[in-house]
Design goal:
The protein is mainly alpha-helical. Helices cover about 70% and strands about 5% of the residues. It has a two-stranded antiparallel sheet with strand order 1-2.
Length: about 200
């Protein structure tokens, strides 16, 4: 994260847009513009070119450097400090925007997972309930012998071989417990609830 923040800061330092926006809001630019409004773009472009960023060259042993040329050393030092703060604020703003976007995407992904997991659990619950209800319809009145099991279903549906009281107990237990959500669903639900 620190390297990413520093790289964004360097990007803002070197950016033509950052330099332009810095000068447009500065009193220094407005002072130089007095009496020369017809040459606004020329003055602005000259000031933009007076901020020079040179990226590090590790093979040559140089570090990142930034130079700002102004009318005198005191003005250069103050404007350089102001420009570094300006670029820093832009970098922070950009990184916060990226972070908010990533957070929003992660939130939406969790919500989609939660809905999918809930749907799977509810569909499985509905299937099990319908299976037990069907088995109850075909089970004999008191014993486990089915009255009429559709061809091929007895081997696929073990519930068809259970007695009516057992089937009713299974159905009651299923209805009382509701859908069986897995641990991922419960974790996602708890996470989203804690972040609201």
């Amino acid at each position: 994260v620190t390297d990413e923040a520093y790289q964004e800061f360097l990007l803002q330092l070197a950016s033509w847009d950052s330099r332009r926006d810095f000068w447009l809001q500065s009193a220094y630019f407005r002072e130089h513009l007095q009496g020369h409004t017809r040459h606004r773009e020329t003055i602005l472009n000259q000031l933009i070119s007076n901020i020079r960023f040179r990226p590090a060259e590790p093979l040559k042993g140089t570090r990142d450097s930034l130079v700002l040329l102004a009318d005198n050393a005191a003005a250069s030092a103050q404007l350089l400090s102001d420009y570094v703060q300006f670029a820093s604020k832009r970098a922070v703003s950009r990184l916060n925007g990226d972070l908010n976007e990533e957070w929003k995407n992660a939130w939406q992904t969790r919500q989609i997972q939660l809905v999918r997991q809930q749907s799977v659990a509810e569909n499985l619950f509905t299937h099990q309930r319908e299976q037990l209800e069907q088995a109850l319809k075909v089970a004999g009145p008191t014993n486990g012998a089915p009255e009429a099991v559709p061809a091929g279903q007895a081997s696929q549906q073990p519930a068809f071989t259970a007695s009516k009281p057992v089937l009713q107990a299974w159905l009651n237990n299923l209805l009382a417990s509701g859908p069986a959500y897995d641990s991922n669903y419960l974790q996602n639900k708890a996470l989203l609830a804690s972040l609201k």
